[in-house]
Amino acid sequence: MSDDYPSLLRSERMSLVQLFVPTEVAHDTVHELGELGDVQFKDLNPSVNPFQRSFVGEIRRIDDMARRTRFFDAQIEKEKDVVPVRPLYECAPLLTVGPRSAQTVDELDTTLSQYESKLTTLNESYQTLSERTRELTEARHVLRETAVFFDKAHTQTTNIRSSFDDSATPLLTSHDDREGGYSSGSFDLEFVAGTIERSRVPTFERVLWRVLRGNLYMNHTDIAEPFIDPSTNAETRKNVFIIFAHGDVVLAKIRKVAESMGATIFPIDANADKRADALREVENRLEDLQTVLYNTGIGRRSELVKIGESLRVWQDVVKKEKLIYETLNLFNYDVRRKTLIAEAWVPTRDLTKIQLALRHATEESGTSVPPILHELQTSKTPPTFHRTNKFTEGFQAIMDSYGISAYQEINPGLFAITTFPFLFAVMFGDIGHGFIILIAAVYMILREKAMAKQDNGEIIGQFFYGRYIILMMGLFSIYTGFLYNDLFSKTLHLFHSGWTFPDNSTRGVYTGHTYPFGLDPAWHGATNALVFTNSYKMKMSIVLGVIHMTFALCLQVPNHFRFKRKSDIYTNFIPQMLFLQSIFGYLVLCILYKWSVDWTKSPVSPPSLLNMLITMFLEPGKVDPEKQLYPGQGFVQTVLLGIAGVCVPWLLISKPYLAWREMHKTTGAGYVTLGNGEETAIARHSTDETLEGEEEGNGRAIAEGDEEHEGHDFGDVVIHQIIHTIEFCLGCISHTASYLRLWALSLAHAQLSEVLWSMTLDGRTDPKSIGGWIGLGIMGFMWLNLTIGILCLMEGLSAFLHALRLHWVEGNSKHFEGGGYPFAPLSFAGEGSKEA
Amino acid sequence: MEALFLTCIDNGFLEGIVRGYKSGILTQSQYANLTQCETLEDFRTQLSATDYGGFLANESLPLSTSTIQEKATQILVDQFNYLRGNAVEPLNKFLEYITYSYMIDNIILLITGTLHERDTHELLERCHPLGVFESMPALCVATTVEELYQSVLVETPLAPYFRDCLSANDLDDLNIEIIRSTVYKAYLEDFHSFCGTLGQPTQDVMQRTLAFEADRRTINITVNSFNTELSKEQRAKLFPTIGRLWPEGNNQLAKADDIDQVRAACETVSEYRTFFNDAGVSSSSAHGNGGIDDLAAASMLEDRFFRMEVFLNKQAFLQQFQYGVFFSYVKLKEQEIRNLTWIAECIAQDAKDRIQDFIPIF
């Protein structure tokens, strides 16, 4: 394979490079490479604790800066009126490379801490002021409420004085009377007044009741407006309470309980005039305080606005700096601590680009010592890197979420671009529904730029990410819709039908010409339509399934060539192919042959292919002449069965035998595998773990077994091959049956859309009266909603999942090796977009 | 088997959650890393690599040990409240029982504090958040036990436990200690019998843990009551009537006068025998200054008790479909917070030689 153009067929060829970076340019180099986003650095000191690494001091400083920016962010968010935050792309960039970079960061650090201390002081004074305001507001409330209360008591007592016997006399007044201390406007009854959090009122009341054994009178009212804590923005609702009791001890107890329950107690005078004075004073002070508070708020706000102007740049810089130092921590110092040594994976194709970037970094930083890059020879497995664009990205992601393919393996993501939407469309086939999702996809693609910028939320974001998949699915669904001749469960009469129905007869007469494309519309509404489409779609799914599996099986071959395991072609690929074709390939041929025969003119009735396949196994060689498809069938089937039978031991034995012979040859020649025994043991141990995970996931073992050909024991090879053989042979049967989901889902989809039509719009499409029009409107609305909601969204998702499964399990198990690890380059781009 | 499935329906999710939480408990190697830290900032960096994550990220420097402890406790409290919020009966009740011990501690803390005329708000801040109940602040008002009970405790679930100690009239230090022990005894017995109603696996695991807890209290009370005003009859009344030492061991302990007799009483239980090995030797070798030595022995004993507790709680995780894991998780996490505080304190005070004296969990 040439490396001239990047291709999706295989992952990029990678090189392990070593970088010698002089300490002076290290920061700028990493910055440049981060902007390029094409280099994956390896951790050269994995055994070192995070806080023992070289640049931990810098990271700590950056962390503190990050904390400050987070603090600003939180402050801005908390501000009631929205503070404008200038987005990143509108800000002047802050240069952190070049000779002045260290200074810039220092300056930023001081700016940040200055702002922080300023903001903290402002916050503090704001807080104290609002605390004072809150207290005064509470005092005002207490004064007002108690005033109301006293007034009421006043009028009541005067009223009640005339009727002493009233049993419903309130506690206060009777108490009052007994005291006899009440005389025109002066109270000498003792009471405690204050405010308390509303949720605590019941407990407070209860505790007081118990502590004082009921010797108290308590009244409380709600304060309408909530109190807002300026630092946390939490709302608290409070109540004003007033408690009358008698005796110093008791009052002291009440105060103590109140204080411990978090209540605020205000000294309130019993005298109405004094209360009025106090109220006036409180209100005056409150007014003054509010002016001051307002000014402080304004000052704080202007500070925040100033911060908001450049906050995003700071965050960006801080984030990049942190990433740079974290990367630098992966590097090694050379002996004299003048140079940093880094190892990294880069795509071989981009080596020159990286060289250029390195040179650029040197120029930027104004030094003359460039970083040196040289390629290393390595036996380590490089990361898997598929270069995708916005179109292929989604398809590749579908395949990657199953497993990352091995380095340089045939990438199933490439073929998924067509097979995936096609298999989806086989299940989803309907011109109308296909058109709806096509429109949705086109809309997303046209508004791509705008939508990429905004935050779409999780669900819409998912759809947006897969917009090109949806586009392809829509196009293919329209195509299969034409094949099924299905438009919202109705048919299209594009050409003349091949059938006529003379004189209202229910029996069609063949006119002699065949409907040129798709299903003949005459089938629609025929009594045997379901029988026909069922049989047709079922057979079609088997045909498509066997083709898909055969294709997937063939993808093994380039892998075998690539990884230099030519023997696998005869030990794995050929027997597998023969096995598959001699049973299921034969079935497909029979299906096609059966379709081609005009059974109305045949002397025998059409034989059931399912029974044929079963008898082929149960009674090899015997075919009932009544059910014979073609002459010589018995013999052909015996031969095919024989081939399939031979393939099983072939698959089982040949590979272990080759491995055994190989081993014999090396030991026979006097070599012992001791030399690198330890190293391979370690290597095998680590890969075995990944292998096991892989096996659980996709249920395949062979290819991995091959990969470590020499490293593996003979026993391993045998076991892998046994598992693989059983897996493949049983898999062939179950996987073929699994493709029947194509039929089942397509049938379900067609039936559902037909049911929907007949339940809502059927018979209403030609309204005669106003009522009819209204009915049409309502039903049409319902129909449209259900079509989009159920038939496009839900059915679409289910078809999507089934297409996914057919690719992951039925397709991938035939060739996919997996076990690679993705290329994760150092990149600022991803970080930036996450924040914005 | 049927019960097993039923437990799964009700508590399978929560058990999964708690087992997940458990795997976040710091391991030996993480402790090893933590003890290498030079400053509390290193400590924070190191902790951010564990399950604690960035729980200290928004704290401004310099860090204090109390912030670390507070934040770590907050994590435990949040986790516990999540579990409690999702629990159904009888697990709900079980989790409530766990909080009772914290409630007892809080009550004792508050009344002791009030006795010594500490600031109420400061005291309230020091209360364990798991043991907070709404009428708790009113405890500061009480001056006698009677009042305490009548005004506040009567409406808490702890009321039945306090009923037995209403006789003690004045609140002084000794009385408070007696109240604590009596209440705790009642609590342990009640919890023990409650676990008995929960059916087999829970009963087994929990009663084992609670029996140890009871024994630990018994021994502690005995050791701490040497040379105090507490009479032997009073002492005997404070011992929980559960545990592996009950009844013979308890009887002997009630009569014990020094640590050797305590050891003799514990001989019957093989697990407890080792607790006194070194302690006993040192006590007999230096019999002259018994007071100081007893103190050292007691602190060593305390340490071993903690180790034993951790061991038992770890064992609780070996069995599935039982509630013991919830109890054990809370206890283990609490131990972990103690460990973190200890290490942080050692780092802050530059006492590197004692930094290893924590109790590793896994």
Automatic annotation (TrEMBL), chain A:
<feature type="transmembrane region" description="Helical">
    <location>
        <begin position="634"/>
        <end position="653"/>
    </location>
</feature>
<protein>
    <recommendedName>
        <fullName>V-type proton ATPase subunit a</fullName>
    </recommendedName>
</protein>
<dbReference type="GO" id="GO:0000329">
    <property type="term" value="C:fungal-type vacuole membrane"/>
</dbReference>
<comment type="similarity">
    <text>Belongs to the V-ATPase 116 kDa subunit family.</text>
</comment>
<keyword id="KW-1133">Transmembrane helix</keyword>
<dbReference type="Pfam" id="PF01496">
    <property type="entry name" value="V_ATPase_I"/>
</dbReference>
<dbReference type="GO" id="GO:0051117">
    <property type="term" value="F:ATPase binding"/>
</dbReference>
<keyword id="KW-0175">Coiled coil</keyword>
<feature type="coiled-coil region">
    <location>
        <begin position="105"/>
        <end position="132"/>
    </location>
</feature>
<feature type="transmembrane region" description="Helical">
    <location>
        <begin position="578"/>
        <end position="596"/>
    </location>
</feature>
<dbReference type="InterPro" id="IPR002490">
    <property type="entry name" value="V-ATPase_116kDa_su"/>
</dbReference>
<dbReference type="GO" id="GO:0046961">
    <property type="term" value="F:proton-transporting ATPase activity, rotational mechanism"/>
</dbReference>
<keyword id="KW-0406">Ion transport</keyword>
<dbReference type="GO" id="GO:0000220">
    <property type="term" value="C:vacuolar proton-transporting V-type ATPase, V0 domain"/>
</dbReference>
<keyword id="KW-0375">Hydrogen ion transport</keyword>
<keyword id="KW-0812">Transmembrane</keyword>
<feature type="transmembrane region" description="Helical">
    <location>
        <begin position="540"/>
        <end position="557"/>
    </location>
</feature>
<feature type="transmembrane region" description="Helical">
    <location>
        <begin position="422"/>
        <end position="445"/>
    </location>
</feature>
<keyword id="KW-0813">Transport</keyword>
<keyword id="KW-0472">Membrane</keyword>
<dbReference type="InterPro" id="IPR026028">
    <property type="entry name" value="V-type_ATPase_116kDa_su_euka"/>
</dbReference>
<comment type="function">
    <text>Essential component of the vacuolar proton pump (V-ATPase), a multimeric enzyme that catalyzes the translocation of protons across the membranes. Required for assembly and activity of the V-ATPase.</text>
</comment>
TrEMBL record, chain B:
<comment type="function">
    <text>Subunit of the integral membrane V0 complex of vacuolar ATPase. Vacuolar ATPase is responsible for acidifying a variety of intracellular compartments in eukaryotic cells, thus providing most of the energy required for transport processes in the vacuolar system.</text>
</comment>
<comment type="subunit">
    <text>V-ATPase is a heteromultimeric enzyme composed of a peripheral catalytic V1 complex (components A to H) attached to an integral membrane V0 proton pore complex (components: a, c, c', c'', d, e, f and VOA1).</text>
</comment>
<keyword id="KW-0406">Ion transport</keyword>
<dbReference type="GO" id="GO:0005773">
    <property type="term" value="C:vacuole"/>
</dbReference>
<dbReference type="InterPro" id="IPR016727">
    <property type="entry name" value="ATPase_V0-cplx_dsu"/>
</dbReference>
<dbReference type="GO" id="GO:0033179">
    <property type="term" value="C:proton-transporting V-type ATPase, V0 domain"/>
</dbReference>
<comment type="subunit">
    <text>V-ATPase is a heteromultimeric enzyme made up of two complexes: the ATP-hydrolytic V1 complex and the proton translocation V0 complex.</text>
</comment>
<keyword id="KW-0375">Hydrogen ion transport</keyword>
<dbReference type="InterPro" id="IPR036079">
    <property type="entry name" value="ATPase_csu/dsu_sf"/>
</dbReference>
<protein>
    <recommendedName>
        <fullName>V-type proton ATPase subunit</fullName>
    </recommendedName>
</protein>
<keyword id="KW-0813">Transport</keyword>
<comment type="similarity">
    <text>Belongs to the V-ATPase V0D/AC39 subunit family.</text>
</comment>
<dbReference type="GO" id="GO:0046961">
    <property type="term" value="F:proton-transporting ATPase activity, rotational mechanism"/>
</dbReference>
<dbReference type="InterPro" id="IPR035067">
    <property type="entry name" value="V-type_ATPase_csu/dsu"/>
</dbReference>
<dbReference type="InterPro" id="IPR002843">
    <property type="entry name" value="ATPase_V0-cplx_csu/dsu"/>
</dbReference>
<comment type="function">
    <text>Subunit of the V0 complex of vacuolar(H+)-ATPase (V-ATPase), a multisubunit enzyme composed of a peripheral complex (V1) that hydrolyzes ATP and a membrane integral complex (V0) that translocates protons. V-ATPase is responsible for acidifying and maintaining the pH of intracellular compartments. This subunit is a non-integral membrane component of the membrane pore domain and is required for proper assembly of the V0 sector. Might be involved in the regulated assembly of V1 subunits onto the membrane sector or alternatively may prevent the passage of protons through V0 pores.</text>
</comment>
<dbReference type="Pfam" id="PF01992">
    <property type="entry name" value="vATP-synt_AC39"/>
</dbReference>
<dbReference type="InterPro" id="IPR044911">
    <property type="entry name" value="V-type_ATPase_csu/dsu_dom_3"/>
</dbReference>
